[in-house]
Amino acid sequence: MSDPTPPPPLPPESPYEPPGAPPASPGNGKAGKSYDYYADKIGGVPNIRKRDNLFQGVFVLISGGVGATVGNWVVPSSDNPMQGLLTGLIAGLVVGVVLSGIVLMVLGMIRKS
Fold first, then answer.
1. How far apart are CA 44 and CA 62, in angstroms?
2. Rounded CA separation 73/26 (Å)
3. CA-wise closest residue to 56 among 23, 92, 99
């Protein structure tokens, strides 16, 4: 038998990282960047971006407050004073979720290109 030689060293880039993937920043792990990259390109997975989730949460809270205010002002409630408030709150929350979802969908489509 001849002298055993060690295997060649692995290349510096991971074979599982796509060629066009953005480089990982020191503050964020490689797994988070890779997940976001595939979530943007393929879709069908939950969005875990902190900025997107914060935007949606704040937008839904504000729209719920606006809806509750408008509902309390518009719906006449002689029997139950909370009826207009709750009706407006539910309508505002639904509208907020739908509108913020549309905004995030458009942003996701822009990120794909």
1. 27
2. 51
3. 99
Q: Computed from CA positions of residues 37, 42, 48, 49, in that sequence, does the dihedral angle turn out positive or negative?
A: positive
pLDDT band for 88, please (50, 70, 90 cuts): very high
Beta strands, E only, 1-113: none
Q: How many domains does the chain have?
A: 2
pLDDT digits (tens, 9 = 90+) for 32-72: 777 777 777 776 777 788 899 999 999 999 999 999 999 98
Q: Which domain holds residue 106?
A: 49-112
Instruction: Specify whether 54 is located in the same domain as 108.
Output: yes
CA-to-CA distance for 93 and 68, rounded, in angstroms? 9
Virtual torsion, Cα 57, 63, 66, 70, nearest 10 deg:
-140
How long, in residues, is the chain?
113
Q: What is the pLDDT of residues 64-85, one digit of tens each?
A: 999 999 998 988 776 787 898 9
A 10 A CB-CB count for 61 gives 13
